[in-house]
Amino acid sequence: MTEAASPAPAAPPSPPAGLRVTALAGGVGGARFLRGLLAALRSASAPDLRAAEVTVVGNTADDITLHGLRVCPDLDSVMYTLGGGIDDERGWGRSDETSGVADELAAYGQQPTWFTLGDKDIATHLVRTRLLREGLPLSEVTARLCERWRPGVRLLPMTDDVVETHVDLAPVDPAAHAGEAGGRRVHFQEWWVRLHAKVPALRIEPLGAAAARPAPGVLEALSDADVVVLPPSNPVVSIGTILQVPGVRDALRATTAPVVGVSPVIGGAPVRGMADACLAALGVPSTAEAVAGLYADFLDGWLVAEADAFEPGGAHGGRLRVLPRPLLMSGPDATAALARAALDLGLALSPAGASRT
Amino acid sequence: MTEAASPAPAAPPSPPAGLRVTALAGGVGGARFLRGLLAALRSASAPDLRAAEVTVVGNTADDITLHGLRVCPDLDSVMYTLGGGIDDERGWGRSDETSGVADELAAYGQQPTWFTLGDKDIATHLVRTRLLREGLPLSEVTARLCERWRPGVRLLPMTDDVVETHVDLAPVDPAAHAGEAGGRRVHFQEWWVRLHAKVPALRIEPLGAAAARPAPGVLEALSDADVVVLPPSNPVVSIGTILQVPGVRDALRATTAPVVGVSPVIGGAPVRGMADACLAALGVPSTAEAVAGLYADFLDGWLVAEADAFEPGGAHGGRLRVLPRPLLMSGPDATAALARAALDLGLALSPAGASRT
């Protein structure tokens, strides 16, 4: 959010300081956007863009403990995607993956069977789980895992504390939902992976968020950024849960950096995933405008599909700049162009940054 | 050990009570012998042999925690071998095994790399580790794992307490031992698997054994047995560590059942494994006679190779019966015949059992 900031001092002539970009990110969509962002930065002509330092604050509210292993799907999607280990077809998990362990766990009758961990992926969870048990905070564990993957960003979990989103299911006809009668609370992953979010959610709650502390560096990454970017991640269970970590939302309101986002909704439907099912639980329509409304108190720029352009209302305090752009991340070039558009919008909105583009 | 037992009452006519056989066992050799024992029992003509109930007291002193997983190599070798999941070529681990997880752990730089856990095997360790963390004792965890494998025996760990054998290495020339200078204490598995027991051991100590309690059922399985069998397992780090659990040796001395064993040494060399390196640490020669001497206070019958026959000395109190037999477990038939010979020797030495054969 850019407020009434005093004019920034002139940048020192050399060496050019790298642009400080901070992004909040969920899993698949966020990771792909970030890959495009890095590609855009690396191919930029401006030296401070090429030297940009990107910090990613990753959602950890969809973390889950399975078979005694701590699994952080969103952090891993970012790490694998930017580190070159992702299964690009699926968008999550490792490429050339096998299921030797999972098949055996099923043979042992171990539950759940609806969340399959691949063998390569399990190695990540083994390392993470062991380090966590040794007492390292998740942020330090994540840094260690990234020593291998070198994702090209500083990847921070939103918090080192345990936050797990749970979902209150509406009562439903079991015959229509593979035996699921609803009317109970389940872990987000069960709703998402087992039930494909087809059983309506009455309430989505990131348990532990209210007492969570931002991981070291998270608030500083927001306050010290030149641009803050919101990829087209799920506004409820990805970006939304990060925003519920005490201090994060305040830091977004207070930062002098412009906060620009990419709508995860195109023409009334989520581009990927099942964000509409999440928005429904909040009583929020699946529109680019409504999602922007969730960020009204700090959002400065918003990329939307041509058909979704809107005139920002009073909630945005006359600050929001809405820009129509092609939003489909249909390939590396389109994704890099989208990321560049978000970056350019941020730089244009930055008191000091317009000259950088 | 058979002592001055009163004559047993006549067996009830029907249904015939199954013979109660209890075996102490290490890993590969013990597991193969036990498979032969089960085959011999199933093909026996005597109903009480066909209905025999076999209890196996498994060594747990070579257990180790790797990558946060609790690994019980000997229990698993018995479970996999009797349950049909063993890699028969190696004698340990799962058949058709893959190394997806291990390769990734190595890519993460995780130590140790000298102990490779297969993917299927890791599933076993995941289940075990999770249940142990939930507070279940190892004996109960083992019973749960056996629900899948149905090994045809009751498999008991020697103790539910943690016992881990460590080895004091002699100082050696690093150039001759892949950089290992010795002169330090290592986990048994490091000595065995990484160093192939080629660095001399000054001392072999099952840490925790002195304070360990026998697992539920262990002492009863020895006192209530009709025959106790010692497979040709390692007399130091397998049978020897079981004997160091307080109460076990006393139970073997006190039981009215004959205790018969199979020499793990043929013609001065261990049949398999590196038992000689272990015996050397105790200053015990690698001979069938010397190994019998380790069991002098409770051993009643001892199968040895033809060339190893000896006249039992005074340490055996005139009780030991030494019987030459072909000891090589070269295949299923030879192994079953060897197991049957051990069983027959036990029955012959049993006050009530001679008529059973």
Automatic annotation (TrEMBL), chains A, B:
Taxon lineage: Bacteria, Bacillati, Actinomycetota, Actinomycetes, Kineosporiales
Record keywords, A-Z: Magnesium, Transferase
Species of provenance: Kineococcus xinjiangensis
Name by which UniProt lists this protein: LPPG:FO 2-phospho-L-lactate transferase
UniProt keyword Magnesium present: yes
Any single Pfam family the record assigns to this protein: CofD
GO molecular function: LPPG:FO 2-phospho-L-lactate transferase activity; magnesium ion binding
Top-level taxon of origin: Bacteria
SUPFAM superfamilies: CofD-like (SSF142338)
